[in-house]
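## Example record

The block below lists the input lines for one assembly entry, exactly as stored, with component labels intact.
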Amino acid sequence: MKKVVISLFVLMFVGISVYVTMLLNAVRNNDVSNKPTVKIGAILPLTGGMPSMGEAGKNGAQLAIEELNKNHGNVFRYELIIEDVGTDIKRTIPIYKKLVTQNKVKAIVSFNSQVGYAIRPYLKKDNVLHISSASDHKIADGQFSFVNSSDVVDGIDKLIQYLQKEGIQKIAIASFNHPAAQNMIEALKARNLNIIYSSIVNPDERKLSFEVGKIISGKPDAVFLYAYEPLTSLYAKELRQGGFKGNITSLYMLTYSDHPKLFEGQTYVDYNMGDRIFQKRYYQRFGIHSNSSASVMYDSVKLIARLFEENSDPLTNIHDKFVNILKDYQGANGILEMKYDGLMASKPVLVEIKNGNPSLKEE
Amino acid sequence: MEYILNLGILFCIYGILALSLNMVVGMSGLLSLAQAAFYGIGAYATALCMTKLGMGFFTTILIGILVNALIAYVVGKILSRFKGDYYAIVSAGLSIIVFSVLLNWKALTNGPLGVFGIEKPAIGSYHFYSSASYLFLCFIFLIVVFALYLWIDKSSFGRCLKAIREDEQLTCVLGYKTKHFKSIIFVLSAALSGIAGALFASYIAFIDPSTFQLKEGIFLFTIIIVGGLSSAKGSIIGAVILISLPEVLRFIGLPSETAAQLQQMIYGAILVLIVFFRPQGLFGKYKM
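Predicted structure tokens for the full assembly:
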């Protein structure tokens, strides 16, 4: 009897949650249109190790879809089909196959590099366009697989120029174990910088005192910080509490800090100084600040839509068509340009946190 | 159809893993959480041998099996000194060590960047590119492992393992070298996991250490708990349930804004109910 009561309670709780959310969704989804529909799939990490990035990416893509569907001049109506892959790579190919064969999507946006690598072999055969926002440009082939992210090499070059100009000799790295971070560290090491210590922690690590102690004991001139929140803020807090008075610099991570005051006056490199209005619209729509995942995903969906709106045969010679589109595309990440192998990226700029806000630094 | 075929491939790979784990946990009563480690070693053996040395898939399977067997032999010697909860803790430790090695031995494994460009298997000029052909290949391996499980289960060796599970001290008193038996089944289980790892690496074309963490070991453990300990049929059914349940939940029309979180809630609730009503699992012959 006790088992039955507990089971009923569990089922009731889940049932009510599902019903309420479905009801809310039904009220919101009242868009009816006679236009032909282009379906775009999104494979995102909404659960698992980095849901904040997946959630932001989902919001960015959703905002783009809402804006596209409000534009009555568009030829197509756009539908976003979101699938959660968590950090469970084994589900990637079945999810991809579901989106392609069941949902009939024409394009896919994704976040993780693992997803990009896993689905890349199938894209050409399935005639599906893919834009990844992973920082690993090897995912792109310039045919059906593209990367809309930052160009690490350009960004690091810009950062090195700044460090040299400021006379910074010794740096320490404070980072997390992630392919993107690994790419940056490799790029930094390749520039013959005097790296006195590399602190690389797991993404779910929260106790940083030991690592920060090691950094401070090496007396670096600057700390290169590359991690998602809350690690960004935790590192900064511990560094300052530990008495570190030098520069904290980064590649774009400081823009998305939950506590920008921690980085007041700090200079770093960012790619995302484009459409500031996007960030306002994002805040108005979702009540939270956007991050890199949101802006990149927003741009990716908008670029896919432009491809379909402006071409009768959108999925042939995609590379050249994107090059044309990018000539006048000013997105959430600024002006993008097509780099090698289908990498779309905006130019790196120096940014300084002023009054808690990132602003372009005079050079 | 393609979607179903790809799920079928996962059923087979995780069926092999569940069967191999059930040999250790169900048949022998050893709480091993190290299966993800051997799964990972098998996957990396195939990935590295194929991409760096240009070896054929089937050769790399053998290498994965041998490497796993060798590591399991050494580790098994240590593990066989423990039992119960201690066995679980030490085996979990092994899983964490292997994960750390895969993550940090960058010269060999490429660290968190992983290994990509892993080709599909080929026999002569025939390549297992299509989902149907790859499923067929995985199914053949599943049948082999399934048959091996049944053969061990019915053999005198299997009966001795079950005796160890029920009362190790008594089995020892009867003259059986229980440490020796525990070590053999651990090596065999690890070697079979290597097959699953190889199939997975070639299927997904890209591997990185994140797939082979302790949580994957716990997922495999859940498969055999739900399917039933010491049951070959239960291992397969458990894999089918745990792989397909989240996929089924994708189709129930949950609102996109909260679908992922709701799917996880429902998934968790169903697992709780299964274990609540069938603590021995669906086809379990033995309860922990």
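Chain B has a mean pLDDT of 88. Chain B touches chain A through 46 residues (CB under 8 Å).
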